[in-house]
Write a structure and sequence with these properties.
Elements lengths: L1 E9 L2 E6 L2 E9 L2 H10 L5 E5 H6 L5 H10 L4 E4 L5 H9 L4 E4 L1 H5 L1 H10 L4 E8 L2 E4 L4 E6 H6 L8 E6 L11 H10 L4 E4 L5 H7 L9 E4 L1 H4 L5 H12 L7
């Protein structure tokens, strides 16, 4: 089980949005590279990065900030936002990303995702952002008529390394992860699912470690880490203890 700290990039700074609204952005750090180093020093093992401007523009916008992050941390980094072509994917992977996250293009052109998985095995994740149970695209600015599970099942057997599932109605408002919908998705597909959107407190960490959530790859935390609602050392200690074989240390 992995706890992914999040760096959301807007105009070169680390921010958190409220309900996916670009006009409701709180700046937490103007130095994304320093934030990446801090997360590594706190003991996190992965980093989740989103180019928010890129998600709306349809192409990478915060490339310089992402490059700085990649130089600042030894942790594997996954990136989403504005990655829409095979050329985009290849470019980013060549720059040191562990994996890219495909969102809008997964809805618009599922065949491209399948081809990307063939070309770059183990390095393609799919981001499914939902509002009212329907998939949202273009940086959450547009709703589709596609259901979450319907979209996820298009990629069964394709080699997608993970699905990052975000409930937009909970993102950035510390309402707690939508566990019923997240676990329903995880039950419906064999692809590992990462929970995102609303992780609010240590209670969500405990919930993530319950037996029925063991099928998840992990969860993403943003605002709760920046605001101090979750203590990194305590959260990571809980996860480490849950990973340990039963009886260890007795």
């Amino acid at each position: 089980m992995i706890l992914f700290p999040a760096i959301d990039l807007k105009d070169g700074s680390c921010v958190r949005l409220k309900l996916g609204d670009m006009t409701q952005a709180t700046i937490y750090n103007v130095d994304p590279a320093a934030q990446a180093r801090a997360f590594e020093e706190q003991g996190f093992e992965w980093l989740h990065v989103v180019d928010l401007n890129g998600a709306f523009a349809g192409e990478s916008v915060n490339g310089a900030a992402v490059d700085a992050i990649l130089k600042a941390t030894r942790n594997p980094v996954q990136l989403g936002g504005g990655i829409r072509t095979l050329a985009h994917i290849e470019n980013w992977l060549s720059r040191g990303l562990a994996r890219v996250i495909l969102g809008t293009i997964a809805v618009r052109d599922p065949a491209l995702v399948v081809e990307a998985c063939r070309r770059f095995p183990g390095r393609i994740a799919v981001g499914i952002d939902a509002k009212g149970g329907k998939v949202a695209v273009e940086g959450w600015a547009e709703a589709s008529e596609l259901g979450v599970i319907e979209l996820a099942r298009k990629f069964e057997g394709a080699g997608v390394s993970a699905i990052i599932y975000t409930d937009i109605d909970r993102d950035g408002v510390l309402a707690g992860i939508n566990w019923p919908s997240t676990l329903q998705l995880a039950d419906a597909v064999s692809i590992p699912v990462i929970a995102s959107g609303g992780l609010a407190s240590v209670d969500d960490i405990r919930r993530m470690l319950e037996p029925d959530a063991s099928k998840l790859e992990g969860a993403i935390s943003g605002r709760a880490l920046y605001d101090g609602r979750i203590d990194p050392a305590a959260a990571l200690s809980m996860i480490k203890a849950a990973r340990a074989p039963k009886g260890e240390g007795i």
